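Lecture 7 notes: from sequence to structure.

We start with a single chain of 270 residues. Read the sequence below before looking at the structure.
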Amino acid sequence: MTASTTLADATATPAGSPMNTTFVNGLALLEALARAGEPCGVSELARQLQLTKSNVHRLLQTLNEQGYVQNVGATGRYEVTLKLWELGVEVLDKLDVKRVAFEPMERLVALTGETVHLSILDHGEVVYIDKVDSPQPVRAYSKVGGRAPAYCVATGKALLAHASPAVVDAVARELRGHTANTITEPAELRAELKRVREAGYAINRGEWREGVCGVAAPIRDGRGSVIAAIGISGPVDRLKSRVAKQFAPAVVEVARSISSRLGWTGGASA
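Now the structure, written as tokens:
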């Protein structure tokens, strides 16, 4: 078993298979080391987890290669690295943004009269982690936990505009039409994302659902990384491109307000 398959591919195996068991044991080992007050040896970990020493040693080697644990001074005792903390910070950022964004989201609904979404990017899709509905009887339908192709919606384009080239390339390979306005050409998508970066906001011109438009802006954390996006959406008769552009400064300002509360001071991450 290689280091690249142990952690990345184990979730694709059937429950109860050897690979699945190895994955679970690896997680248990990480938890044990993370909760230990000092570095632990192979024998100690094997007793605690009721595993053979050879299994523990193999797991430690894999986790060491992946950067999650380290051998303390070649003593044969191991401790977790800061990589676990870095992952935890990423999760906390996403949880914090939902808490911090709620009041500004309500403010944006009051200002625009349209439904407000808070979204994050996940494997080329946006996930709506929170929303505040428009008070108007006719409004955009969505639900918390729902997903949409990132290249089709305003919050998604705001996020993709600041994503890595690898993420954009992966999305560009999977473009397909959902409405007459959907971007389906990679070059067109990259040009659109460039416009989003330059303008500071993104517009959905009915690209995911016929007759539903929107405008969104990115939210940054304290390091300047884009971690979420906030946007408004509504029927095209209320959110034509001209109207969306009029609302754009308010959306951008709310996004900046949330970013400031998360510790952003105005610079982008490297």
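Residues 83-112 form the longest helix (30 residues). Keep this in mind for problem set 3.
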